[in-house]
Design goal:
The structure holds two protein chains of two kinds. Chain A is α+β, with helices and mostly antiparallel strands. In chain A, strands 2-4-5-7-6 form a five-stranded mixed sheet, covered by helices on one side. A three-stranded antiparallel sheet of chain A has the order 3-1-8. By secondary structure, chain B is an alpha/beta fold. In chain B, strands 2-1-3-4-5 form a five-stranded parallel sheet, with helices on both faces. In chain B, helix 2 packs across helix 5, helix 3 packs across helix 6 and helix 7 runs antiparallel to helix 8. The chains are: A alpha+beta, B alpha/beta. At the A-B interface, helix 1, helix 2 and strand 6 of A face helix 8, helix 10, helix 11 and strand 2 of B.
């Protein structure tokens, strides 16, 4: 037995004598508080490690995802500058590739900036009482054009009147992301079902697709930043993997909840619940979340 | 107010007077007790009568005679370890019945006496020693026994080393909690109940177990997340909060984000944490029957709070195990008998099962 061990054993013998119970209770309380503080410290350390991993992922995106389209832009710009004999249709093809790469980069940078703002606690919401069902309908119409071009159908099911106090542009961003994802991941000929209605406690929005679904091990991380869920979108639409993380932050900023259920090969269902509107609220309200 | 609620309230309101009357009558019936047990014995008798009444009031409020019957079983084993016979306890409960009958209005008295009589009827068949909590042949029982022996010898570093070695040899973290920490803590309680260890030893072993648990936190918080959030608290004495702490850690191992608040946290703080953390589930534990009323009050506060509408509430702890329908009565969404069941039930409540 170690010296420390022997010392502790001798201590154990001493406990058989009377010890002030009030003092003992207080020591127990102090020990509990220490244990709780240690637990929080360990949690915070784990959170810091997670943030460090995110920072590394961000550097990875800067290194790879932005470098590839930059290379495309640089190469095609050089062709255009150096080759005077290019045919008109070829020049146009090169310019379109430059434009597509630029748009991709802008989308990526927008996502990163959005996420950086949210992480810095600067998600500002300009909440107005509005008809969420109408917002959903507009977004379905917008995405319907893209869906149709890909041989997909979006079905809208409107339930009861669905009013809530929301930041219209942010909720549009949420809808665009979820419906846009459903379009990206659905096979041609598939149907996307969007539902909006009220459930007594607030507004419920559902987006169901017939895509490849999400693996169980990925579903738990799907709302984490830089997670792409494993599946590859059709048509090569790639992103930074921040879209759903941003969506979750916006929904939470509205005191709402978002969940997903899915199984591989069986499509996915995203559900959002937003708390009910104040019926008499007509003025806007700016909140920081 | 229902007849049961009225009886419970009458006992709670008159507890001090009733406890004094029980002690007075108990000693008056056999004056030699003064010589045998002294003034300290009289003070203990008064304290015990207070416990009888607290358990009785809560059992009646919950409509669960099993809660009082189990208290009688616990008291018999505890007193047997301190050389107080079952007959002595029976006489004391008899006096309790007489006092309730004499001092309470007829309606409440009838209900209270019925509960006491059920406890008295069960008393002769109850054991003096509860069964061991570390069961020979159970997975990792030998490790649990050695771990507890180390703690009782005051060797926390050896106890910690045993756990670290087991983890290094491939025993899953979850099994350490369920098969080592949990049974050794239950056994610790049993040893105290039977007067085989001192209160100081019990305190030390509990604190040392927390020390060992805290050394495992880096592993605990490194497990993959599942996107669900649990807030956990308990309504219990500070010594008994380790149970719900273990349950919180098990949820963390399973991928939940857990926020353990500690014991007896003000209700407003619980609500604030639920809202801030966007909790999916609130887990509330009560160690002993008299704490059930506080669980009920906490749940009512959460139910009424803005921003907690989606929070599902899970309760657990000894009284809820004794009375399987009690979770519903206190306003929870579900109850769980042990840590493993709590994981399953919470996943179901959060829509993940």
């Amino acid at each position: 037995m170690s010296a420390a061990g022997r010392g502790e054993s001798a201590g154990a013998e001493r406990w058989r004598t009377e010890i002030d119970p009030v003092l003992m209770e207080e020591l127990s309380r102090l020990n509990n508080e220490l244990a709780t503080a240690q637990r929080e410290l360990a949690r915070n350390n784990a959170e810091l490690a997670r943030l460090n991993a995110q920072k590394n992922a961000l550097l990875g995106i800067a290194a790879h995802d932005l470098r590839n389209p930059l290379d495309v832009i640089a190469s095609y710009s050089r062709f255009l500058l150096e080759d005077d004999g290019l045919a008109e249709d070829e020049r146009e093809r090169f310019l379109r590739r430059i434009m597509k790469s630029s748009e991709f980069m802008r989308g990526l940078v927008d996502e990163l900036l959005d996420y950086a703002r949210i992480e810095a606690g600067r998600l500002e919401l300009d909440r107005q009482a509005c008809d969420v069902a109408a917002l959903v309908e507009e977004n379905v119409a917008l995405n319907g054009v893209i869906a149709e071009a890909r041989g997909l159908r979006i079905v809208l099911e409107r339930g009861e009147a669905a009013r809530a106090r929301v930041d219209v542009s942010k909720i549009e961003q949420v809808l665009n992301n979820l419906i846009g994802n459903a379009v990206k991941f659905s096979p041609p000929g598939g149907t996307i079902t969007v539902r909006v209605g009220a459930d007594g406690a607030g507004v419920v929005i559902e987006v169901r697709d017939q895509g490849p679904g999400i693996a169980p091990e990925a579903i738990e991380r799907i709302f984490e930043p830089f997670e792409k869920g494993g599946a590859v979108p059709r048509g090569g639409d790639k992103g930074a993997g921040l879209g759903l993380a941003i969506v979750r932050h916006i929904v939470h900023g509205h005191d709402g909840r978002i969940s997903v259920s899915s199984r591989p090969g069986g499509g996915s269902l995203f559900q959002i619940h937003l708390p009910a509107a104040c019926a008499d609220a007509s003025a806007g309200e700016r909140t920081r979340s | 107010m229902s007849a049961a609620a009225e009886a419970s309230a009458a006992i709670t309101a008159g507890a001090a007077m009733l406890a004094a009357a029980v002690t007075e009558r108990h000693y008056a019936a056999a004056p030699e007790r003064v010589a045998r047990y002294g003034e300290a014995g009289r003070a203990k008798c008064l304290e015990d009568a207070g416990y009888h009444l607290a358990y009785l009031a809560q059992a009646i409020a919950s409509g669960e005679p099993a809660l009082f019957r189990d208290y009688v079983a616990w008291a018999r084993a505890m007193l047997a370890g301190r050389k107080v016979s079952a007959q002595e306890l029976a006489r004391n409960l008899d006096v309790l019945r007489e006092v309730l009958s004499a001092e309470l209005p007829p309606g409440p008295a009838a209900i209270a006496c019925e509960y006491v009589e059920a406890g008295l009827a069960a008393l002769p068949a109850l054991p003096d020693e509860p069964p061991p909590c570390i069961v020979e042949g159970a997975p990792n029982a030998a490790l649990a026994r050695t771990f507890l022996d180390a703690l009782l010898a005051g060797e926390r570093r050896r106890a910690s080393g045993l756990v670290t070695d087991a983890l290094e040899s491939g025993v899953p973290l979850r099994d350490i909690y369920l098969q080592v920490f949990q049974p050794s803590q239950q056994e610790l309680g049993r040893l105290w109940q039977m007067n085989r260890i001192s209160v100081a030893q019990e305190h030390y072993a509990t604190a040392a177990t927390q020390f060992v648990m805290s050394q495992l936190y880096p592993r605990l918080f490194a497990t993959p997340r599942n996107g669900l959030t649990l807030v956990a608290t308990c309504v219990c004495g500070d010594l008994h909060e380790i149970g719900v702490r273990m349950v919180s850690d098990l949820f963390e191992i399973e991928g939940w984000n857990t926020f353990y608040l500690g014991a007896n946290v003000p209700h407003d703080s619980v609500v604030r944490t639920l809202v801030e953390r966007r909790a999916d589930v609130l887990a509330v534990s009560a160690t002993i029957t008299p704490h059930v009323a506080q669980v009920r009050a906490l749940i009512a506060r959460v139910r009424a709070a803005e921003g907690c509408e989606g929070v599902r509430i899970l309760v657990g702890g000894y009284p809820f195990n004794l009375a399987p329908g009690l979770w519903r009565e206190v306003g929870a969404d579900a109850g769980a008998g042990d840590a493993l069941q709590a994981l399953d039930v919470a996943a179901r409540l959060a829509g993940r099962a």
